[in-house]
Amino acid sequence: MSTSPLRFGANYTPSQGWFHHWLDFDLDAVRADLDSIAGLGLDHIRVFPLWPLFQPNRTLIRPRAVEQLVQLADAAAERGLDTSVDGLQGHLSSFDFLPAWTGTWHRRNLFTDPDVLSGQAAYLRTLAAALADRPHFIGMTLGNEINQFSGDPHPDPDRVTPEQAGAWLTRMLDACEEGAPGKLHLHAEYDAAWYQDDHAFTPAHAAREGAVTAVHSWVFNGTAQRHGRTGTATEHHAAYLIELSKAWALDPHRPVWLQEVGAPAPLIPAEHAAAFTEATVANALDCEDVWGVTWWCSHDVSRSLADFPELEYSLGLLTNDRRVKPAGRAIAELVREQRGRTRKPAPRTTALVVDTGDEVTAPRRSVCAPGGAVFEAFARLTADGVRPTTVLASKALDPGHLAARGITEVVTPDEVR
User: Fold this and answer.
1) How many C-alpha atoms does 411 have within 13 Å on its Cβ side?
2) Domains of the chain, each with CATH number or no CATH
3) Which InterPro entries match (predicted)?
4) I need a surface site. Which of 81, 127, 198, 280 has the fewest CB within 10 A?
5) Can the peptide bond before residue 345 be classed as cis, meaning omega within 30 degrees of 0?
6) How many CB atoms lie within 10 A of CB 414?
């Protein structure tokens, strides 16, 4: 069970130029952004190099771009902020960023083509190695929700099998470890990994590969539409994903990083963003083994930039002119309350049975999605004050497994009324 201090951070979205800032990198503007993030009392940022700008050719990783990434991380450290770096961007806020050597005339599968794999591994290894000696470097995440490229609803997917996805994860995580041994290297998927029956990236991948499990909690996935902005399922969605991940974890106390969570308008109106933030984080903190909470995102997207989905413009803790928003004040207050405390939430003794078929490929994992039997039963139990967790059907009668997790009662979705 984790008793280490909880980490609080933000996904860094540059206030000037969004992630296109790498094209016109301005260290002074970055420093001003980092000052505003540090002013909230946060202790880390998650940073997103744009893959095509850093590796425009399969055998060219631009030294100047890597140098700028290191400068950003060093500037963060000067302000008391540790840095986690996502490598393969990949996908950000509805836009795809893939290098030309993977598309059109050079179209080849991102997850299986030998040349693409060697290029990706070299790139991740290079970024990791550039930061390996920095004590403020947390580690690498392979990419931001890169699993969305692997199947529907992507308009041009690079289809793979779960076995191929697993092989890709292993190779890329190994490359990160080679570059920066001993750092916190992980991968991160959007919630199709937990909710979509035929998705190649599976709950077992998420909960068993890498140093920690990452979950990205977005209530625009049908949760808020179904349960409303203050519904139990909405305010506990992040906690649900944290507890759902534990069903597949082999380590009974594997750390879970709530790596992305935000308050998307209009489902969460601006005037309710602070209340949603407070409730979501408080409920996540009621889970054991949480490594940290990293809010999406640091700064709003400027309205001068075109074609973003409407909700993407207003997700920041700060405006794009660096003024603190109500959600930012809520986070700052939570950080002040938690600073120096040692977390030790009580075990969740009631486990809801999760039966998705084969536990490795989870062919029936839609039961875990909004509207599914597991999701709705978890919400009902939570509304009744039960504080549930989850357990795979294959482990539900294993006394050793249950004891290791502190589970004393097991219920099925059909038994929840």
Assistant:
1) 20
2) 7-338 (3.20.20.80), 350-415 (no CATH)
3) GH
4) 198
5) no
6) 9
